[in-house]
Amino acid sequence: MFNTVAQAGRFVGRRTLGAASHVGRISYLTVELVRAVPEWRIWLPRAMDQAMGVGVGSMFIVMITAAFAGAVTSLQAGYQFDAQIPLYFAASMIVESLILELGPVLTAMVLAGRIGARYAAELGTMRVTEQIDALESLGRSPMSHLLLPRVLAGTLMLPVLVVFADFIGIIAGWLAAKSSLGITDAEFVYGARAFFRDWDLWYSMIKSFFFGLAITLVPCYVGYTTQKGAEGVGRATTVAVVSASVLILFLDAILAQLLLQ
């Protein structure tokens, strides 16, 4: 019994120390990124290239995801609604669920797999092949050359992609609602405007900003600190995607509690 308790205590202690160590390292990395901001001549052109890759390269998968999310939401509304509920309530549910939740979260999840995995693999490969060490030996900062452009590109482009996803999802939900519910255009527009608040758009943008920071900063940190060769790169890619996805869900709950009260 005593040995079991001792082993459990050691396990919890190791996990706690490991988590504290990661928090300290990622905090130090964030400070170094802030210190690299004045070197804008270095990171600005690289950030523009990365932003094009994140934005344009992700539009198709974001469009597909948002379209299916809007259509499925409409079909489920058609299954659950009955004749006693006005049809414009379905339009309100479709629009609000897409703007407040489905658009930001699904887009962030998709990009966590696409962008987070890529950033972790790129930086991890550079680390294990000593390219980052060579850059530092030449007096160049990896923060301004490698990390800051990626973090800024993902953080700034995710709100743009979320707006695109919201638009596509609402259009797809509108078309699906017309076929599944028989709702008219006037009823859908009325329902979409009935419970809409300007703060909903701000809330969606704030969420997408923090989600963008999560799906770039965490994978960049994981890739930057990769060890143990090719095996370490594979492990870092998995850890980056899983950690970013869990952090997105955590931030979603925290921001809803803070901003929707």
What secondary-structure arrangement, pairings included, does this model have?
Elements: H1 2-35, H2 40-80, H3 88-128, H4 131-137, H5 142-180, H6 185-194, H7 198-224, H8 229-259
Indicate the structural class.
Answer: mainly alpha
Instruction: Kindly report how far apart the N and C termini lie.
Output: 47 Å
Q: What is the tally of helical segments?
A: 8
Radius of gyration: 22 Å
- Which spans have pLDDT < 50 for at least 5 consecutive residues? none
Count of the separate structural domains: 1
How can the largest sheet be summarized? none
Strand content: under 5%
Number of strands: 0
Mean pLDDT: 88
The arrangement of helices and strands along the chain is HHHHHHHH
What is the general shape?
A: globular
User: Helix content range of the residues, please?
Assistant: over 70%
